[in-house]
Amino acid sequence: MNEQVKLKLSDSKGAFYIEINGKQEAMMTFVFSGEDKIIIDHTEVNEGNNGKGFGNKMVQEAVFFARERGIKIVPLCPFAKHVFEKTPSYNDVLAI
């Protein structure tokens, strides 16, 4: 099973998602806040996929995305906020 995180972008928002066998199994949405920040507002994993680490993989991909672009992340979503709290190595992209 290949669990590669993919990215959808539009002008003011985007989503990281995991698709398996052509079916979207997890998604984490965000909105741009100015040119230097994204706000993660929702994370969702389809039933049957809990405990597979999909949420963590999407947050990790958001961190890579932020580092590449030199932007910060505001984790409003409770899940993403929890991941940031337990992963100090992500603090460099955390908006204070």
The 3D shape can be described as globular
Number of strands: 5
Cα end-to-end separation: 37 Å
What's the tally of helices? Answer: 2
In N-to-C order, the SSE pattern is EEEEHEH
**Residue-averaged pLDDT:** 95
Q: Strand sequence of the main sheet, in spatial order?
A: 1-2-3-4-5
Helix content: 25-40%
* Secondary structure category: alpha+beta
Radius of gyration: 13 Å
* Biggest sheet details: 5 strands, mixed
Poorly predicted segments: none
Q: What share of residues are in beta strands?
A: 35-45%
Which short descriptors sum up this protein?
alpha+beta, 2 helices, 5 strands, globular
How would you sum up this structure, described in words?
This protein has 96 residues and is an alpha+beta fold. It starts with a strand and ends in a 10-residue tail after the last helix.
Layout of strands and helices, then pairs:
Layout: E1 5-9, E2 13-20, E3 23-32, E4 37-45, H1 54-69, E5 72-75, H2 78-86
Parallel strand pairs: 4-5
Antiparallel strand pairs: 1-2, 2-3, 3-4
Please give a quick description of this structure:
By secondary structure, the chain is α+β, with helices and mostly antiparallel strands. Helices cover 26% and strands 38% of the residues.
